[in-house]
Amino acid sequence: MDDEIDLRDIFRVLWKRRLMIIGIFVVAVLIAGVISFAMTPVYRVSSIIALGNFDEPSYTSLASAKSIMLNDQFLIEVFQQLPNNKTSDFRNFKNSIKIEPVKDSDRLVEISIETSDRQEGREAIEKLIFLYANRSKNSYIRYEKILSNQLDTTQERLNILDVEINQTLGILQNMQNISSSSALQAEIGIYRVLDRLSSMETQRSALVDKRLDLQRQIMLSRHLEVISPAGYPLSPIWPRRVLIIGIGGMLGLMVGILAAFLREELGRPAE
User: Fold this and answer.
1) d(CA 232, CA 226)
2) Separation of alpha carbons 230 and 224, rounded Å
3) I need a labelling partner for 253 at 20 to 30 A (CA). Which of 41, 145, 178, 180 fits?
4) What structural domains does the chain harbor?
5) CA distances from 122 to 115, 116, 118, 224, 238 (A)
6) CA–CA gap between residue 249 and residue 19 (Å, rounded)
7) Looking at the whole model, is its pTM more than 0.90?
8) Which residues, 6+ apart, have CB-to-CB distance to 225 below 8 Å?
């Protein structure tokens, strides 16, 4: 029975002081809203790139790419080319940049920056990728040139070897057509030519395999690609206005209820 009386008293106080509770709740929500809208918004600008696929770990592995792009000297070069670098702090600029792998991929990398200026963030990401891509491209061109030179050399050796094989086949045919006074000597000569042909065919097979491997490497090699360019994010990552207003409303409701009971207690006549 006491519990029922207590509950009735609680609801009576809440209903009696409802305007005060609602008022405090509304004020708290308004204050939280004003604070959330007064806070400087922070945006996350990001881009996804695919690292190159060629025999140069400095520009094809995540660890090396991250090491290069987060290097102070490299970031200073990026920072100095930004329009607003005079009013920005380099240390904050560096700390705002994140480079992380895309899930379930060994080539895709996400480059992001957290900034209050979306335009500046986009320019920073684009400049960073541009400078890194130029370095990667120079390395890629050198790699392709080495492969092309090796392919040309292999093809030249194949051409020379094919001529030698054809000449040797001609010699063999002549030896078989010309009767010799000594059958033994003719047979020895033919065996020597056949042995030489076998050696040349082995060399040719190895060169053909090497040519195919070089062609495969050239075909599969890739330079850095921008998969998803940096854009303008519509919503900031901070402040989370709905969350801040929600927390403000909950706190306002709790304070309002507490104030209602405190007011009720103070309003009772002294016994």
Assistant:
1) 16
2) 15
3) 41
4) 40-250 (3.30.70.1130)
5) 10, 11, 6, 19, 18
6) 15
7) no
8) 49, 50
Cα separations in angstroms, 42 against 94, 96, 135, 228, 236: 16, 11, 31, 21, 5
Task: DSSP for the chain, please give it.
Answer: -HHHHHHHHHHHHHHHTHHHHHHHHHHHHHHHHHHHHHSPPBEEEEEEEE--BSS-HHHHSHHHHHHHHT-HHHHHHHHHTSTTTTTS-HHHHHHTEEEEEPTT-SSEEEEEEEES-HHHHHHHHHHHHHHHHHHHHHHHHHHHHHHHHHHHHHHHHHHHHHHHHHHHHHHHHHHHHS--S-HHHHHHHHHHHHHHHHHHHHHHHHHHHHHHHHHHHHHH-B--EEEE-----SS-SB--HHHHHHHHHHHHHHHHHHHHHHHHHHHSPP-
Phi first, then psi: what are they for 104, rounded to 5°?
Answer: 65, 30
Measure CA 84 to chain center.
25
Q: pLDDT tens track of the chain, all 271 residues?
A: 444 547 888 888 889 889 999 999 999 999 999 999 999 999 999 999 999 998 888 889 989 999 999 999 999 999 998 887 765 688 999 999 999 999 888 889 999 999 999 999 999 999 999 999 999 999 999 999 999 999 999 999 999 999 999 998 888 888 776 655 566 666 777 888 888 899 999 999 999 999 999 999 999 998 999 999 999 898 899 888 899 999 999 999 999 999 988 988 887 665 5
